[in-house]
């Protein structure tokens, strides 16, 4: 398959993957159905717990049954979960819908990246991965920005309309996946040997024993934890006394997040060429942490800091995926990427739990500053471990 064909199919997949219509309103639906903040907190924890627990099994299934089938299942299961939210009325029914939503996401997590990398590699153009994935992320983020703004308005007309529309869009996403070619992912190997769980465990161990890879994954997982706890408190911070935005402006703010992140994603390959991956991870995440550290002293910097955070994270995520892909054997690629995603989920749970306690004890802005300092210390150690090893491009790894 030629680069242009892979690229446009991936862009269409990214476009129909967006769930922007429900991003700014799904918590409002929970409140409208009479759920308490305790119930909402429980559902959020349940969602992340399912993400973490399902990552390895669904990643393994993705490698076992093929990436196209895994992505097809992801679209259908996610559509069912999102549609279920429209019908849910009780805590149990919301829990079941969110569980389906999370499981669907884990079927996609890592698998879409693994498919893209393999499809490009089969055509001898694996070096285009950063460019294509970055542009694909930009397409998705731009679509999310537009639909987020629409979703806020649509919600005022119909409580459930955004959920039904996203479920329909995900059905289109499933149809797009069916147009993907099947990419060889190592299934020509003996199934009696290659797909044993013991073999998978051995190959996962081998992947994470490569020089610097554990430290690098730890660095990016720690970064994700900081990003996730910040995202959790965006709405109470910007609507509260410290910033004072009207509630109606929050949808526009979320659209701004996605527009800026889309622009940054589109420039990922240029950042790689001009700045380099090593310098990016030395400067970008530390700039993010520094912007959070100053918030208790300069609350006016809150909105720019949150916008900048989204841009920095999306570029970092693409580079993370590229580095892990480069150093992972083809037939276990989705499984390894799912392990990385699982690590991010664990960090998200930990940061959110600690962040909630600290926010009640001090204040949300001071909590973010304290956790940003924790990140600076931890990332400094991990970056020292990875520097000079994992950031070296190894073409032999790419071809495996």
UniProtKB/TrEMBL annotation:
InterPro entries documented for this protein: MFS, MFS_DHA3_Transporter, MFS_trans_sf
Annotated keywords: Membrane, Transmembrane, Transmembrane helix
One GO MF term: transmembrane transporter activity
Alphabetical list of Pfam families matching this protein: MFS_1 (PF07690)
Transmembrane regions listed in the UniProt entry: 12-34, 40-58, 70-88, 94-117, 138-155, 161-183, 216-234, 246-268, 280-299, 336-359, 365-385
Signal sequence, renumbered to the chain: none
Protein name (database record): MFS transporter
Species whose genome carries this gene: Natrinema altunense (strain JCM 12890 / CGMCC 1.3731 / AJ2)
Upper classification of the organism: Archaea, Methanobacteriati, Methanobacteriota, Stenosarchaea group, Halobacteria
């Amino acid at each position: 398959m030629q680069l242009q064909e892979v690229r446009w199919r991936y862009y269409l997949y990214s476009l129909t993957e967006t769930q922007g219509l429900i991003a700014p309103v799904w918590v409002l639906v929970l409140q409208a159905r009479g759920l308490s903040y305790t119930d909402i907190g429980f559902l959020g924890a349940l969602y992340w717990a399912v993400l973490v627990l399902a990552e390895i099994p669904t990643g393994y299934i993705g490698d076992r049954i093929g990436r196209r089938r895994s992505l097809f299942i992801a679209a259908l299961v996610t559509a069912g979960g999102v549609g279920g939210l429209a019908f849910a009325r009780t805590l149990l029914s919301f829990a079941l819908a969110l569980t389906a939503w999370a499981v669907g996401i884990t079927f996609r997590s890592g698998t879409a990246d693994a498919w893209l990398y393999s499809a490009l590699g089969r055509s001898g153009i694996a070096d285009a991965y950063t460019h294509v994935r970055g542009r694909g992320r930009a397409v998705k983020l731009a679509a999310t920005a537009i639909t987020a703004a629409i979703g806020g308005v649509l919600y005022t007309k119909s409580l459930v309309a955004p959920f039904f529309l996203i479920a329909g869009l995900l059905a289109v996403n499933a149809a797009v996946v069916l147009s993907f070619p099947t990419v060889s992912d190592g299934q020509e190997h003996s199934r009696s040997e290659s797909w044993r769980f013991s073999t998978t465990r051995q190959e996962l161990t081998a992947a994470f024993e490569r020089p610097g890879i554990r430290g690098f994954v730890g660095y990016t997982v720690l970064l994700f934890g900081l990003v996730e706890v910040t995202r959790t408190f965006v709405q109470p911070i910007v609507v509260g006394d410290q910033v004072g935005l009207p509630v109606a402006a929050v949808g526009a703010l979320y659209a701004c997040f996605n527009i800026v992140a889309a622009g940054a994603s589109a420039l990922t390959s240029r950042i790689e060429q001009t700045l380099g991956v090593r310098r990016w991870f030395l400067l970008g995440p530390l700039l993010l942490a520094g912007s959070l550290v100053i918030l208790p002293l300069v609350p006016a910097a809150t909105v720019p800091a949150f916008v900048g955070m989204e841009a920095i994270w999306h570029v970092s995520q693409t580079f993370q995926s590229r580095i892990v892909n480069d150093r992972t054997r083809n037939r276990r690629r989705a499984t390894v990427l799912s392990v990385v995603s699982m690590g991010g989920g664990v960090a998200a749970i930990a940061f959110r739990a600690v962040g909630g306690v600290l926010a009640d004890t001090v204040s949300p802005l001071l909590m973010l500053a304290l956790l940003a300092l924790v990140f600076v210390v931890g990332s400094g150690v991990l970056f020292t471990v990875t520097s000079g090893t994992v950031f070296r491009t190894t073409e032999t790894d790419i071809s495996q």
